[in-house]
Amino acid sequence: MGFLVRFLVVTSSLGLAVLIQNYRLLSRSLPAPQLDLNEYWGPGSAENYVEDTTVKPFNIKVNTELISDLKAQLSRPLKLHEPLEGVAFQYGFNSKELQNIIKYWRDTYLRKWDENEAFLNKFAHFETQIQGLRMHFIQVKPKKRRR
After folding, report:
1. Residue 1 reports pLDDT greater than 70
2. Alpha carbon distances (Å) from 3 to 9, 10, 17
3. N vs C: which end of the chain shows fewer Cβ within 10 Å?
4. Which domain holds residue 64?
5. For residue 104, is it within any domain?
6. Domain assignment present for 61
């Protein structure tokens, strides 16, 4: 065999070995992070914090001034970079899609905020406090399907 053929075989073998090793590294399962379940995550200091895990009913009510302010902020021009071609969301949120979402919120969703707020309040909303963080959640049970 000539030098060129041997060089190509060795180079191809090394390239294949690198690809296999990278695949193994990227596809392996990572261990779950170890978190302190008593750590304080809320705002301010944890010195005077007393945990209150009581689950309380919650109703969505947003002030109209806050909705007007949000509309005004969404109307301001954004300084966004053009997304990379053919990349979708692989390197972060696609700026063209972000423009579409902002336009939808500003021109469609927020214009009907009263209707949307009424729709959201049809569900059972609750809030509680866990490790200093205020948690808001919805409890919706699925309807049983008939067979």
Report:
1. no
2. 10, 11, 21
3. C
4. 56-84+91-139
5. yes
6. yes
